[in-house]
């Protein structure tokens, strides 16, 4: 067996999902062009990019909700597949939390299990056991309108966790939260992730969030979206809250911000040309 030297980088985990040269067109709009990315088993990969660059489109393809244009390649667990094959193999939380207002916390949490055909009683019992970990103990009978924004997001996250799949997709789950709640939720999510050891693809437009959470950050170009930069984040885990002021963090942030600003400027210029 080959031995790795102590100073050699850790071997990359086996890829769970891979996209190669993926395009996606919506009528006249080219949303993605030649996008290639890979998420290793057990990895936490974050994706940042200017708004409208195709982040949610990427997410929808990996969730199996949209088929990419012909020509690109999609592989799951090493096997070539269509996006539609991923439906049901991936658990996802869309950009809007989509809690059903007429269902209680517990019944919102078990929605995906119910759709899958699990008996309601059994699903409820499992969700009840999970409530404390999600900071929702005692709130099982409440309705979404009775909860704070952070709690509603935790219900939506719990629903995603309960639907146990190898890959979890989270599309800007903390985007609508205030800054303090947001950092608390990030720390909490890392805690839960380390206990449950899932593979996560996490979309955000917040660079600090992308660095704080990720093993790797993918920066997307302006539309049509592709991966502009792939940055390893070798910051130690567990990540402590004061990490965001550490020199290595700031250095990474500068690199990523530069890449994103260049792209945001491009999308801004494209928009301006259209107005003129
Ligand atoms: N279903 C769709 N039909 C038509 N256009 C779409 C659709 N989904 C996304 N788009 C367009 O594709 C581009 C990328 O959108 P999106 O992936 O939502 O970007 P992001 O999530 O990065 O803000 C946008 O111009 C958007 O209007
Ligand atoms: Mg989006």
From TrEMBL:
A Gene Ontology molecular function term of the record: ATP hydrolysis activity
Pfam families for the chain: ABC_tran
Domain ABC transporter, first and last residues per copy: 17-247
Keywords (A to Z) from UniProt: ATP-binding, Nucleotide-binding, Transport
SUPFAM superfamilies associated with the record: P-loop containing nucleoside triphosphate hydrolases (SSF52540)
Record keyword RNA-binding present: no
Residues forming coiled coils: none
Highest taxon, organism lineage: Bacteria
PANTHER family: ABC TRANSPORTER ATP-BINDING PROTEIN, TAURINE IMPORT ATP-BINDING PROTEIN-RELATED
Family (UniProt): Belongs to the ABC transporter superfamily.
Name of this chain's protein: Bicarbonate transport ATP-binding protein CmpD
Organism from which the protein derives: Methylobacterium frigidaeris
Classification of source organism: Bacteria, Pseudomonadati, Pseudomonadota, Alphaproteobacteria, Hyphomicrobiales
